[in-house]
Amino acid sequence: MNDSPRPADLAQAGEALEQPLYEVRKEIYSRAVSGWFARWRWALVIFTQLVYYGGPWLIWNGRQAVLFDLVARKFYIFGIVFWPQDFIYLTGLLVISALSLFLFTAVAGRLWCGYACPQTVYTEIFMWIERKIEGDRSARMRLDMQAMSARKFGLKSAKHGLWIALSLWTGFTFVGYFTPIHQLGAEVAAVFAPAAAGAAPALGAWEIFWVLFYGFATYGNAGWMREQVCKYMCPYARFQSAMFDPDTLIITYDPERGEPRGPRARNADAKSLGLGHCVDCGVCVQVCPTGIDIRDGLQYECIGCAACIDGCNKVMARMGLPKGLIRYTTENALRQKLSPRQILARSLRPRVLVYTAILWTVIVAIGVTLYMRVPLKVDVIRDRASLSREVDGRWVENIYQLQIMNTQEAPHRFVIRASGAQTLQLVGADAVDIDGAATRMVPVRLRVDKGRLPAGSHKIEFEVAAADDAAIVARERSIFLVR
Question: What is the predicted pLDDT for the residue at 17?
Fold first, then answer.
């Protein structure tokens, strides 16, 4: 019997009652697990990190394949060069990402969180380093309970040293997407070995900040905060239920098959003992990176990593029981005992089809737009200092500035033409050479015979075309003023 006073009794007695404002974090010692889902998770870890760490080192046309040059306002993605005017493509990418998240969540829950989210990926890597140095779950628990010793200090130092090294390399790679990574490497080398680096440029303050900041964020989130990021900082866990329905595949414990739970010998007949298949071993809790018990039902802390499925399946195999006590299934499948074929058929429900249709419509639209994209952009800027002027008593002249952007990486000669008004003439050079992925301001003077146009504004059109490629042409409208 519990004789400790209840909060209500203390309040009635007038005694002060202290309650913590925030829940005290309990250290989670997750256990290593192997299995089909663990192999999938590690395959995605390896794939995403090969893409992330290897991306800046790829070379394309003699330059970095993926580079977001904020200073020059050019964004290189393999053979395509994007400019600030191409912001619509970033919008399209964000729409595609959001729709993909909605679709995958509606079909199979938190697939992104469990397999590809950077928080999950880096936590998995950091935990792998931790296990290699300190051991698995029980060894780490024993180590943390020990008093500080030379061995404990050495193990902890090695672990945190590798964590910090990986975090700094992660920050270095992140900055390498914005500053050419070979140049960034030379700048970093110059800091530690100035004599060997020679005349390498100095490492900038912003580069130092972002390497350290991104490295610190990686170290703090994956090494220390871990499940706290998923439970309290990530908004996705809070609104994911809005995208679930009874036919969404989620990681679920089968209580009808598992209950009543209880330990038993390996060869014991559970039915004769009045027990379900769950042996109450706690492996599903021990392998969970967020420390929840999936047997309590769906919880927002569950990131859908399926570690509990792998752990439970191993226990079921050792006990000679069928796998799938914890499995991917749906609420309707559990309640109505649906077959896998019926579950698959129900996955093609209206909301999934609508998400899929919209997603592919956006993807095709962006793809077609990119395919038909003309690698030339022209902006027409009127000279505000002299809107209209008379020349030689015969001509009315307007002055313009044409900003011509060659978005291809090959140089071109562009021919400039103007049309739309009687006797309209272009004075001066009508062609300009522009290097690849470069922009140039070109002054243009247009004239008409005085008296041939009434006073006011008249619509005209500029045409800029590549002399060596008839498909590269841009047209921009403007006005010609006559006073």
Answer: 57
Of the candidates 93, 69, 95, 63, the residue with the CA atom closest to the CA atom of residue 82: 69
For the chain, the first-to-last Cα distance in angstroms comes to 100
Q: How far apart are CA 339 and CA 332, in angstroms?
A: 11
Crossing angle of the two packed helices 137-145 and 118-134, in degrees rounded to 10: 70
At 1, the pLDDT band (50, 70, 90 cuts) reads very low
What count of other Cβ atoms lies within 10 Å of the Cβ of residue 239?
10
According to DSSP, the residues that pair with 460 across neighbouring strands are 478
Token couple for 160: 């945190």
Q: Which residues of 133-165 are buried (b: 16+ CB within 10 A; e: fewer)?
A: bbeeeeebeebeeeeeeeeeeebeeebeeebee
Condensed to tens digits (0 to 9), the pLDDT of residues 217-231 reads 999 999 999 999 988
Q: Please, are residues 110 and 355 in contact by the beta-carbon 8 Å criterion?
A: no
Using CB atoms within 10 A of its CB, is residue 443 exposed (0-12), middle (13-18) or buried (19+)? exposed
Tokens of 149: 């010793």
C-alpha 105/C-alpha 113 separation (Å) is: 10
d(CA 76, CA 472): 20
Q: How confident is the model at residue 12 (pLDDT cuts 50, 70, 90)?
A: low
Averaged pLDDT of the chain: 89
Q: Which helix (H) or strand (E) holds 368?
A: helix 350-371
Which domains does the chain carry? 36-240 (no CATH), 246-334 (no CATH), 376-482 (2.60.40.10)
Question: What is the dihedral sign for C-alpha 173, 91, 222, 137?
Answer: negative
Contacts of 449 (CB under 8 A, 6+ apart): 394, 395, 396, 422, 423
Reference 400, options 419, 414, 380, 415; nearest CA is 380
Read out DSSP for 310-337?
A: HHHHHHHHHHT--S-SEEEE-HHHHHHT
The two structure tokens encoding residue 72: 């020059």
Strands 469-482 and 63-64 come out as: unpaired
Query: Which pairs from 103-106 meet CB under 8 Å and 24+ separation?
Result: 103/352, 103/355, 103/356, 103/359, 105/240, 105/243, 105/244, 105/248, 106/243, 106/244, 106/245, 106/248, 106/351, 106/352, 106/355
**Residue 440 C-alpha from the chain's centroid:** 34
Cis peptide before 194 (omega within 30 of 0): no
Beta strands in 385-437 (DSSP E): 389-391, 395-406, 412-419, 425-427, 431-434
Among the listed residues 228, 117, 222, 212, the one whose alpha carbon sits nearest the alpha carbon of residue 160: 222
Q: Is 439 helix (H, G, I), strand (E, B) or coil?
A: strand
Helix (H, G, I), strand (E, B) or coil at 405: strand
Both tokens of residue 46?
Answer: 């390896």
Residue 282's identity, in one-letter code, is G
What one-character DSSP code corresponds to residue 87?
H
> What was the pLDDT predicted at 235?
85
